[in-house]
Design goal:
Elements lengths: L1 H49 L17 E7 L9 E4 L2 E4 L9 E8 L5 E7 L6 H10 L4 E8 L8 H8 L14 E7 L8 E5 L16 E7 L4
Antiparallel strand pairs: 1-2, 1-9, 2-3, 4-5, 4-6, 6-7, 7-8
Helix pairs in contact: 2-3
Amino acid sequence: CFFIGAAKLVVVIAIFLLTFYVISQVFEIKMDANLGHIFARSALDAAAHSTKPPRYKCGISKACPEKHFAFKMASGAANVVGPKICVEDNVLMSGVKNNVGRGINVALVNGKTGEPLDTKFFDMWGGDVAPFIEFLKSIQDGTIVLMGTYDDGATKLNEEARKLISELGSTSITNLGFRDNWVFCGGKGIKTKSPFEQHIKNNKDTNKYEGWPEVVEMEGCIPQKQD
């Protein structure tokens, strides 16, 4: 009886150990599978985060072709945030640079090289239009001209100033009114009307801000001037 009891005990212990071994093996396999899934998912997440969308010059939506200059610009927001003009990833005018002001903000760029030439703003509410006219007349042929309004860019404009701007390729300048928002990119000596222009009228029924319309933004690729 003692031997039979001992044999039964050995069998029970053996079954217990075998069962424990099988369970542990299954558990480890599941753990390995879970860990593998976790690591694989982490690797995929890391790969997804590392694949960032490409960034183009000035933050525009697509790359410009060869022999073109990338630009992006925005008018001012009411009388609070100034306009911004960027060409070839170079911010030429902005509130951060502290070189913008009420009225019409102008940036000049070399049409062959894309290099900045000058930046100025002209107060068309409380200022004098004469210096603006002289500035427009002094622009050299082949120069890219970018303009953006801030606060009010039209009150002091006269027919001579409007005509000079229209000769740069603008079609909206003749209708630019009090507190309208407007951005424009043209050139001195341009033979056709510019395709780069946005204009929103000041209208109390549609204005986004009290007394001012919403900001207008524009981006594009300016053809390089060829000899």
